[in-house]
Amino acid sequence: MGGRSNTFNTPGVQEHAHFLKEVDEALKIRHSVVDLFERASLPSLPVEEKKKLLSFVVVGGGPTGVEFAAELHDFVLEDMAKLYPSLKDYVKITLLEAGDHILNMFDKRITEFAEQKFARDGIDVRLGSMVVKVGENEITAKERASGQVVSIPHGMVVWSTGIGARPEVVEFMKQLGQVNRRALVTDEWLRVEGSDNIYALGDCATINQRRVMEDIAVIFSKADKNNSGKLDLKEFKDVVGDIIERYPQVDIYLKKNQMRDMASLLKKSQESNIIVDIEYFKEALSKVDSQMKNLPATAQVAAQQGVYLADCFNRMEECEKYPEGPLRFRGVGRHRFRPFRYRHLGQFAPLGGEQTAAQLPGDWISIGQSTQWLWYSVYTSKQVSWRTRFLVVGDWGRRFIFGRDSSKI
What is the residue range of the signal peptide feature (predicted)? Predict the structure, then answer.
């Protein structure tokens, strides 16, 4: 089902803004940009009207909003300026972001570079600006620092502020009793909570990772096989792997705090006899759940979920007989499958001018034209067939040689 752009019920967004979710929306944006230049080129039009028509406002400083603002700047500077040279100086691109920085999910070095580049390119980045209304000819925003409400004339508004649920999904959530949620809630096996045989993945769903502290008592009792009220080293070793697999926040916490294993978390030496009671166990794991985060609504997550579910379905009968998942702490036996685990492979942020920023695993940061070529190669490799790969690369080649197509077809 996917998702739709989240308007946060802001007045006028549905009626007057463009979105960046569907192919037909992309075509509408292209037609609108060309149409605005056509209208602004009329010789009888006053200068102020030309400036208003060529005022483009992008709402949302995430990767999508930033990439669109950069691409629009390149399109205007490299292509439309050649067709309408007299209008070049009237174009203004404004990026509104409610937070303190654009690309705030990236490393600080990337955020600073992007803001500085946009400043050099003449893209007006307004931080701490929350949109309160979108009109036909102007957009109204409230500045957080001063509390002042400002109006910006516009010819086109593009809205890119996150993902919301589609009406069909909202209705399904009501039937399941999942209220006040941004998406369908699933367990770690991507099974919709409240059902036995319905699975959801991608933008329409979010994983409800269980907290360790919710199950701390049953974890301890399951590990304490002799019911002594204490865990010794052998009992602890028998269950530690299942704890880490069932609750990934434990592994994240260990790595973040540079701990080698669960024994380090319990502040005990691996060589010594670990004897802990339930209260000590609770205290040691009390901060682990702070590492829990929702997965981002990206294609990278959805693609990995699709591969995971396909593999589970293909091996359903086999895993019914020979379960491979972690220990059932609130039941008997083991889960059929291992829980879904997202493996972050990095993220890119194209910044225009053939420059891209990349943040890859291992805190590896790369910014510049070489990273743009890395982005080209990754993007090409993700195409579903050699035919689409050749088509995409061919489009890029034509753009380099002849420029972007500015027709309305």
Answer: none
Query: What local confidence, expressed as pLDDT, does residue 196 receive?
Result: 85
> Which pLDDT belongs to residue 271?
45
- pLDDT for the residue numbered 274: 66
**What is the domain class of 210-293 according to CATH?**
mainly alpha
Task: Count the neighbouring beta carbons within 10 Å of the beta carbon of residue 238.
Answer: 14
Signed CA dihedral, 311, 312, 317, 321: sign only: positive
In this predicted structure, what is the pLDDT of residue 396?
94
**Is the separation of the CB atoms in 103 and 61 below 8 Å?**
yes
**At a CB cut-off of 8 Å and minimum separation 6, what does 375 contact?**
348, 350, 356, 358
Residue 369 contacts by C-beta under 8 Å, 6 or more apart in sequence? 354, 355
**CA 253 to chain centroid:** 22
Residue 125, both tokens: 């980045």
Cβ neighbours for 313, distance < 8 A, ≥ 6 positions apart = none
Q: How far apart are CA 220 and CA 250, in angstroms?
A: 15
Pick 3-163's CATH classification: 3.30.420.10, 3.50.50.100, 3.90.1520.10, 3.60.15.10: 3.50.50.100
Quote the pTM value.
Answer: 0.87
